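Appendix B. Raw example, untouched.
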Amino acid sequence: MTEEELRSNAIKRYVNGERPKEICESLGRTKVWFFKWLKRYQTGDPEWYRSLSRAPQSKPTKISEEDRQKIIQIRRRLQRQPFSQAGVTAIKWELHKSNFPIPSDRTINRILHQEGLVKKNFLCAERG
């Protein structure tokens, strides 16, 4: 019996007059489990017995596409300039000058990696 069938069966038994304690004991489940599914059943949702996603409903720290493109644009511009710094600190400075929101170093690095804008430092690689 699948988990969904178990939930549905437990609530059917309750609707037919069986006591929650007896249902829980026979299924090897807790009262908390039973009453969680009873509460979901009572909402009237036809899909009450299905598990809900545990993923966050929103991602408040997700960077906008506009900000993402701004970071990429700054990186490319800095890379074209001879002898200029093009790392996270330089990008953050440029964002600051433009009054753009400044994401974390990790976010900037993740965007640069996703766009293939991070190249291994060959001088460091030769030493290793």
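End of appendix B.
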